[in-house]
Design brief:
alpha/beta; binds magnesium ion; 348 residues; 10 helices; binds threonylcarbamoyladenylate; 17 strands
Length: 348
């Protein structure tokens, strides 16, 4: 398949929108990561997204809308809580899991009776969705299992020849995927942490917000010499996409936890040892150059996936990464970093 690489112009957005309306696939920038879009109400089109990504079909898609009123077209009843969160965080990096209307096909929701809805703040994304005139199902625009794409070049690398068009925007502002909050239970529950934290949700609602228990659990790393890392059968996150074999770079990755100075010393020693063996080593220490912890967390979010892809590009054998304090956005970054490392942790 010939993939159109489209600059961001009004004309090209209209062209991309008509591809979506015709059941085609278009990758586009958002403020979190690039998405691979299809008409969310067209099961055949959504099926092609799974095929292009090599994604398991039990993993539901997030449905993107351009205007808050469109939420009412996807869920039978917009509750007061949904309205409050929409007013507080949309447009922006929040996905709400809500009951779905029957018009949303099983293919889009992985057979679930709920649907994830997000209203992105990125102007290109919103213009595209508006012009398409339909809700747009869009997972991250990477091949399944690879780090999420935060630049147009990442998308071209993974999906050129597999999709109809790629809207070639700039770098994504945040670099990690949206916060996913489940609004279908008694107490709202964060299923995937992002730059909007549990504390921010609780403050906006003036009520308790839970974390899916799997987010605080580090699954046992079950190693089978024949097959490599296996999934821990007791690790059952509520969000199908949060199973831990994900975001993986090709290099062997280790996360170092401990006091910052001890971590730096240990990483340097290990890097020197591996380099002496002829290995290419990448060291990631996002907090080292940041003035404040908050700035460091946002830099880490912005740079993590790009750094993992760059390591692969340069043929790194090993990646050594300093852990971040698991607070605020640091908690969300660590969620990705630990998965990327297959939960391979060195305590120093
Ligand atoms: O920032 C983002 O959310 C990006 C951009 C493109 O918007 N999209 C994204 O999509 O990260 P994806 O498919 O890579 O991740 C969607 C996550 C998965 O973990 C999926 O299992 C979960 O959301 N999810 C979607 N619908 C769900 C549902 N109905 N119930 C539970 N989890 C759901
Ligand atoms: Mg993804």
């Amino acid at each position: 398949m010939q993939t159109l690489l489209l600059d961001i112009t009004e004309e090209n957005i209209a062209r991309a929108a008509s591809i979506l309306r015709a059941g085609g696939l278009v990758a586009f920038p958002t403020e979190t990561v690039y998405g691979l879009g299809a008409d969310a109400l067209n099961a055949d089109a959504v099926g092609r997204v799974y095929a292009a990504k090599g994604r398991p079909s039990d993993n539901p898609m997030i449905v993107h809308i351009a205007d808050p009123e469109d939420l009412a077209k996807l869920t039978p009843k917009v509750t007061e809580e949904m309205r409050t969160l929409a007013a507080a965080f949309w447009p922006g990096p929040m996905t709400m899991i809500v009951p779905r209307v029957p018009e949303v096909p099983d293919t889009t929701t992985g057979g679930l009776s709920t649907v994830g809805v997000r209203l992105p703040s990125d102007e290109t994304a919103r213009a595209l969705i508006r012009a398409a005139g339909c809700p747009v199902a869009a997972p991250s625009a990477n091949l399944s299992g690879r780090p999420s794409p935060t630049t147009a070049a990442h998308v071209v690398h993974d999906l050129d020849g597999r999709v109809d068009a790629i809207l070639m925007g700039g770098d994504c502002d945040f670099g990690i995927e949206s916060s996913v909050i489940d609004m279908t239970g008694e107490i709202p529950t964060v299923l995937r942490p992002g730059v909007i934290t549990r504390e921010m949700f609780a403050k906006a609602l003036g009520a308790e917000v839970l974390l899916d228990p799997s987010l605080n659990r580090r699954p046992a790393r079950i190693l089978d010499p024949a097959k490599g890392a296996q999934e821990d059968p007791d690790f059952k996150p509520k969000s199908p996409g949060m199973k831990y074999k994900h975001y993986a770079p090709k290099a062997a990755m280790t996360v170092y936890e401990g006091a910052p100075e001890a971590v730096r010393t240990a990483m340097e020693a290990e890097a020197a040892r591996l380099r002496a063996l002829g290995q290419r080593v990448v060291v990631l220490d996002f907090l080292a150059e940041s003035a404040t912890a908050e700035e460091g967390e946002l830099t880490a979010a912005h740079d993590l996936f790009a750094a993992l892809r760059a390591a692969d590009e340069e043929g790194a054998d090993a990646i050594l990464a300093a852990a971040l304090p698991e607070e605020g956005v640091g908690f969300s970054v660590m969620n990705r970093m630990l998965k990327s490392a297959g939960y391979h942790i060195e305590h120093v």
